[in-house]
Q: What sequence folds into this?
């Protein structure tokens, strides 16, 4: 067991291990959260016993949580709920209520005390914003319909978990024995005073101060961090938690023009400091507790991995969304959140729960985050595989979309385009300008409605729905073009067109030369490479201008 004489050497060694384990996790396509928790276990008392600077690591961990809540607060602008759409609000609230009730009952069934069961149920309820946004960005599907709905659900979840943190932080360490009437009055008085003070500063001082500091990007970032930590400390002094103060600090700047740039600049610092939060969490894990919690952790993880997606599918299906959209949204949300760990740490620090409950939540997090990563990466493949049984989650009459686009497609078309994203709609526009009759098909109701209003013949539908093809004049069409991302999507459409007896030509979309070769081998007449084609056209334009 090495003992580092200097704290700098200790931190350097921990960071080196974190980098190595993080690289392995990236190779395995796992999020860094899992890597950092494992690092904490590895360098903690049950592993290498490297961590002796507990106070310093815990300080970095607390700073990380404060910065995280500050960044969350920066994104909570007043018009947020309106931007996420009603479907996200309904699905989020429905999923939260169902998960909380069933999760609480499940925790009680495993013998947890009522208060511990409450924390476990809360931990199971929320999904990871950091992981989902990162993976959807990597897949370039944040703007897809299911991606937008999932992000909207996450925003509503974040608001709810923030309110929960405020509640827990306000009532302090003795909730089971608290006089809620008296304490509520005290909390109301202190909270009102706190918010009034911050509100006055935000209204009369903060805009002018930020405007003057904005001349120096470094200085405005430094001030934002100081503001966050300062209000976090004030929150603690008033009897709230530091999370409450940091969150209020972020919200106070959310209405200013500087919130977006500050949020972007603080992401790297947030991630670095959160490393220590998860390492600190891993250091405190008792492997003996993990062994006893293995069975309930596996059962509750299955509840999160399977139960939460099923809830989302059911809710979206009742609202009229097709199986592909609802299943992909549900699969994306099948994990617990980084806020679940923060809630566990908050509950432990206030004496609400013990190490056993923290270990249980951490183990559930490792399992669900690890497995859901692959669920998100392979949503198309999983959805295609499960498509025959997913029909039970669809309504026969699709309420939100039943009046979108053309009720019946035109009797004659030259080209049918599946996918009216940026690439698909540009192809549709160019072909229409050249005199071709084009029919656009998409499963995003907003896109279908928009292009229908702008004169394009459109049809709402899912390419995996065989009934859709009864509304498409395939006999007259010369080409069917698919611009939807994903090789699996292309293969499903190709198979369906062959089953329908389509005699025309088929163009599919790929993003790599390997994907192009694979699609050509299974029968595609043409494979489009959007990025390569755009680069080639740009190069030709540059060459012409150079020669001019």
A:
């Amino acid at each position: 067991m090495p003992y580092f004489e200097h704290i700098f050497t200790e931190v350097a060694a921990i960071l080196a291990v974190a980098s190595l384990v993080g690289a392995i996790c990236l190779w395995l396509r796992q999020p860094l959260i899992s890597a950092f928790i494992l690092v904490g276990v590895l360098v903690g008392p049950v592993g290498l016993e490297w961590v002796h600077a507990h106070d310093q690591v815990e300080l970095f961990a607390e700073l990380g949580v404060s910065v995280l809540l500050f960044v969350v607060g920066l994104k909570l602008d007043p018009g947020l709920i309106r931007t996420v759409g009603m479907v996200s609000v309904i699905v989020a609230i429905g999923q939260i209520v169902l998960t909380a009730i069933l999760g609480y009952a499940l925790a009680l069934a495993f013998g947890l005390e009522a208060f511990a069961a409450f924390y476990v149920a809360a931990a199971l309820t929320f999904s990871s914003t950091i992981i989902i946004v990162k993976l959807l960005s990597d897949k370039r599907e944040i703007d897809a319909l299911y991606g937008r709905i999932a992000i909207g659900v996450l925003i509503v979840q974040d608001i709810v978990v923030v309110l929960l943190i405020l509640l827990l932080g306000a009532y302090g360490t003795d909730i089971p024995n608290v006089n809620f009437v008296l304490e509520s009055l005290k909390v109301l008085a202190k909270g009102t005073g706190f918010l009034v003070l911050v509100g006055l500063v935000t209204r009369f001082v903060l805009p002018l101060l930020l405007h003057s500091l904005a001349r120096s990007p470094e200085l405005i970032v430094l001030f934002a961090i100081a503001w966050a930590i300062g209000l976090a400390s004030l929150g603690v002094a008033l009897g709230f938690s530091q999370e409450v103060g940091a969150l209020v600090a972020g919200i106070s700047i959310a209405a200013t023009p500087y919130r977006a740039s500050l949020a972007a600049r603080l992401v790297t610092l947030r991630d670095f400091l959160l490393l220590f939060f998860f390492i600190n969490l891993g250091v405190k894990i008792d492997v003996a507790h993990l062994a006893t919690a293995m069975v309930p952790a596996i059962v509750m993880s299955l509840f999160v991995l399977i139960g939460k997606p099923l809830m989302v599918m059911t809710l979206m299906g009742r609202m009229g969304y097709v199986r592909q959209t609802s299943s992909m949204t549900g699969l994306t949300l099948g994990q617990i959140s980084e806020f679940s760990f923060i809630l566990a740490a908050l509950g432990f620090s206030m004496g609400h729960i013990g190490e056993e409950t923290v270990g249980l939540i951490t183990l559930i997090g490792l399992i669900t985050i690890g497995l859901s990563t692959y669920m998100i990466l392979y949503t198309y493949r999983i959805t295609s595989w499960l498509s025959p049984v997913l029909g039970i989650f669809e309504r026969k009459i699709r309420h939100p979309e039943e009046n979108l686009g053309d009720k019946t497609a035109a009797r004659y078309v030259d080209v049918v385009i599946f996918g009216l994203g940026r690439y698909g709609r540009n192809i549709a526009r160019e072909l229409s300008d050249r005199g071709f009759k084009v029919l656009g098909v998409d499963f995003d109701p907003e896109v279908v409605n928009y292009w229908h209003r702008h004169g394009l013949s459109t049809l709402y539908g899912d390419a995996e729905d065989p009934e859709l093809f009864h509304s498409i004049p395939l006999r007259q069409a010369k080409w069917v073009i698919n611009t939807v991302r994903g090789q699996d999507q292309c293969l499903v459409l190709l198979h369906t067109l062959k089953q329908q007896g389509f005699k025309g030509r088929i163009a599919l979309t790929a993003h790599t030369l390997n994907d192009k070769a694979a699609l050509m081998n299974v029968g595609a007449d043409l494979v489009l490479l959007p990025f390569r084609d755009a680069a080639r056209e740009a190069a030709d334009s540059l060459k012409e201008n150079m020669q001019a």
User: Anything to note?
Assistant: The first strand starts at residue 415 and ends at 418.
